[in-house]
Structure formats: C-alpha cells, structure tokens
Design a protein that fits this description.
The protein contains 3 helices and 10 strands. The protein is α/β, with parallel strands linked by helices. It is globular and about 60 Å long.
C-alpha cells in the first residue's frame, strides 16, 4: 500500500509525524524506532538560546487526568545543530524544525555554514529552497569563500499570523 503523503511542496513517506511533545528531539527514540521510516519528526520548540522552562512542580494530577506546564524548556538552536541534528541526519529522518520566538511583529532568521554553495539541480531531492521561498517574505542567499549565509524574513501580524 502506498502511504506517501503530499504536504505542500513535500512528499512524505507516510502521514505519521512524531510530535514534539512526546517525541522530544527524535534522537531519544532512535534506538526504538527507525526514524527513516516515519513521515517526519517534529522536534521540540527551539528558541535561539537555551531555556530552563518553569520551575517545579511542572506536572499535576487532576481528577480529569494530567496537567503540565513545562514552559518550553529547550536546548536552543546552537546545541540542537551541534548535538541533535547530526544524529537525525545520520538516521535519515525527515525533520520539521519548530522555531520559537518572543516577538509577534516579525521573524528574522540567519543561517551560516562553512560549506561550499551548490547550485540547484533538477534532480536534487532537497526542498529547502522551495520551502523557504514559499513560506517567507524575503530570502537572501549569499554564497562566499568561507561559507554560505541565508537570511530569512517573515512579517507577522498582531496575533502572530502572516500579513
């Protein structure tokens, strides 16, 4: 049975996307689940800096079940890229990065690497550029001798929605 699932410009292997709230960054379950067989892994929310989240108690039992208020604890973007992303790549996971911020008026992201720029090819299976151009208001790619810088901008409305 063919379970491939279209999601915008992407085609996922199947519709199963592991949720960040119960699957962490994905690598925590990599010895139990073959991450490459999932439609995707939505990682825990990433702020630029590490966050401790709320102080305990974070989980309380109620007559109707459990109530939690973790407070978006996380390792931050830099630790994620350094510690978690290489393992996710090694295990060939399709990764959905959940980026968090503290303002509601605009979102700016700048990514730098030390690799060599490679032009788009028709047979290239990556969809990063297509997704960036579809989801962002501005995309600037600056290849250079010491790496590539990608700058992204998205205008947001008062309620956090795109305008």
């Amino acid at each position: 049975m063919d379970l491939t699932t279209p999601l915008g410009p992407l085609t996922l292997k199947n519709p199963l996307i592991a949720a960040s709230g119960c699957f962490g960054y994905g690598v925590e379950y990599a010895d139990l689940v073959d991450l490459s067989t999932l439609g995707g892994v939505a990682v825990k929310g990433l702020f630029l800096a590490e966050r401790e989240g709320h102080k305990p108690p974070r989980i309380v039992e109620t007559p109707s079940g459990m109530l939690n208020a973790i407070g978006l604890q996380g390792i931050g973007v830099h630790r994620f890229v350094r510690e978690k992303l290489p393992e996710l790549r090694k295990r060939r996971a399709t990764v959905f990065v959940n980026i968090c911020g503290t303002t509601v008026t605009k979102g700016d992201v700048e990514v730098r690497d030390s690799g060599t720029w490679r032009r788009e090819r028709e047979d290239d299976h990556g969809r990063g550029l297509e997704l960036m151009r579809t989801l962002m208001d501005a995309v600037v790619i600056e290849p250079g001798a010491e790496g590539t810088t990608v700058s992204l901008r998205r205008r947001l409305g008062q309620d956090g929605e795109g305008t």
